[in-house]
Amino acid sequence: MAFNALSTLARRALLATTFVAVAAPAALADGEVNIYSYRQPTLIQPLLDAFTAETGVKTNVIFANEGLEERIAAEGANSPADVLLTVDIGRLDGAKQAGITQPIVSDVVKENIPATYLDPEGHWVGLTTRARVIYASKDRVQQDTITYEELADPKWKGKICTRSGQHVYTIGLVASMIANKGAEETEKWLVGLRDNLARKPAGNDRSQVQGIKNGECDISLGNTYYMGAMMTNEKEPEQKEWAASAKILFPNAADRGTQVNIAGIVMAKNAPNKDNALKLVEFLSTPKAQQIYAEASHEYPVTPGTEPSDLVKSFGTLKADTLPLAEMAKNRKAASELVDKVRFDDGPAS
User: CA-CA to 331 of 20 to 30 Å: which in 10, 179, 181, 284?
Assistant: First the structure.
């Protein structure tokens, strides 16, 4: 079904659906760009409205929780997808490795976004960053500094909560540790971290903060934007209480800096509206768009000189690890293998 042929009702139905991969004919509409997105429509709509206001290009969005890469692959040459918005270097690089992307060739993007957040071959572009930080109990943790290495210190035995070791966010951290410390040291660190866990890894980053609130653990691993999401959650006000019980510690602030990951964009291999897709990517790299995106997502802009929101600034000062995200991507397979090797998801050793 072509995007430009969809009725308003049909589009709303598509937005609310988690898709399985199906074939679809191409959409060849002038003045439009077709977006497949893992980012919530309410999160990106202000960006898209600003893009349309500036360029006159209409945006069509399909949102899903999973399966969009597979859908693009199955649609093949007939795919209407121009771009895919997603999060985490693992998913961005995974799209590249799946062969569903094409290089984004743009001097504008290269000028606006540091090379650290760009694929050297142009297949993905980072648009915002998030830091993998330590959430710590305000009542039970007195220290205000920490390192990732310290998470293996026996003083934290039975006091750490985290999500699965095989989740993309955890794999990203482990991959960065391999890049910075080597595989042998990272394996020892993983064993120490595993044995300091208060429980088997489970749940999402928010539920780890709930564990801090409930006294199940004193510290947890989490992405910075979850603090903003919890602090502003009017639908589930109990999450505000979870957030109020914890403070953010930025690991390794005194040396290499805190590990960061990205939300980003790829251009689909068979993008039918390639010129408009490029316009969108270039717009998203501008300070104006960066400000809108970072404000809505509680993330950090990647464009130098663009400030995060006041709420994000309240978390403290982020000194980001300058490790190129492409290097992190290279170590993901080794990171996944190490997580399995030490049986991280089995929890602390008896």
Answer: 284
pLDDT tens, residue by residue, 281-304: 999 999 999 999 888 899 999 999
For the stretch 86-114, pLDDT in tens is 999 999 999 999 999 999 999 999 999 99
Q: How many helices (H) and strands (E) does the chain have?
A: 15, 10
Distance in Å from the first CA to the final CA of the chain: 55
- The residue count for the chain: 350
- Nearest of 148, 169, 172, 168 to residue 160 by alpha carbon: 148
In contact, 39 and 91? CB cutoff 8 Å: no
**Distance between CA 325 and CA 306 in Å, rounded?**
20
pTM score, whole prediction: 0.86
Closest to 89 measured CA to CA, from 172, 165, 163? 172
Strands 125-137 vs 300-301: parallel, antiparallel or unpaired? antiparallel
